[in-house]
Design goal:
5-stranded mixed beta sheet, TIM Barrel, Alpha-Beta Plaits, 2 domains, alpha/beta, 17 helices, 380 residues
Amino acid sequence: MIPSVPVPLSGERFRVVYRLSGSESECREKAQDICLEQTVEFPAELVPDGDIRNSVVGRIESLDRVGENRFAAIVSFAVETSGPELTQFLNVVFGNTSIKPDARVERLDLPESLLRAFSGPRFGREGLRARLGVPQRPLLCTALKPMGLPPNELASLAYQFALGGINIIKDDHGLADQPFAPYRERVRQCADAVARANRETGLNCIYMPNVTAPADRLAANAMFAKEAGAGGLLISPGLTGLDAMRQLADDDGIGLPIMTHPALQGSFVASPDSGISHFALFGQLARLAGADATIFPNFGGRFSFSREECHSIAEGASTPMGRIKPIFPTPGGGMSLDRVPEMIRFYGSDVVFLIGGGLHTHGPDVVENCRHFRRMVEGQ
């Protein structure tokens, strides 16, 4: 038998809302399984009495019907089970349970004691607005593409975008360190092009290169981007891991805004009965991991997100989380300029509009297309 031992615990707990599928009895059994699986991972009858059974093991706080064969279970965990680490926090929230069917993380509720373990976004909405000199309206973003262009052609596009008044120019997430556009050469030329345009316009457009790379090159990519004059970083945490993004956000030597791309994260949200909700993944977890802006596919584009799902991401990007700053929802994915008024009505002003190919299809003059984009949001 495992002995009963005292465990140094504060008594504070964080809560996770899970969506479970099945009958009420089946969902209660699943919730109880989460309590064990996400903590002690031990047969219930063998869990020692005392602190481990009473406090270390997860606790079902409520189980409520939310639809036919759908229940919302609130399970609480001792904050000490997570420790001050994002990796272990994610492990407690959904580690083993992610391998099982019919359980989905809907939202997180963290006490201030646990939120203090995370720095969150370095800039957030207010900080990014201050950096760009745009106090109120929606921010304008576009992407350098297509893959295959050499650095000088990408830099030429960056210059035209910045000259036209775009606020944020990011690499397409498919640009890495390919032989046709080597990372350092591309970043240096694009950063210089944006700086040249800024000198001509008096604006504060920033270039965000894609720093996504193998783990042993990620920090070096970010530091080179800063030294080359980049104004922010793009990263795909589905490829690198959320904590890799957190590390860049927390690094005072880098100190740049971070935009997160959803590459490889789609399967987390594809099913309504498993994975992680749009609210939690692209909103709450992106913030905990240090993103200042979170890209996702807008409704009505070439991807499958619904209006409700996009609205939930915007909510997750702004819902109160103690000291963790709100961030910018950044809808994109097949958007065109003629949809800008609709997007303003839907998202309001605290949003980054990401339009890539649509800036090219609007007309032959890219600079004028960007100016038209800007006029549309400034005239809201």
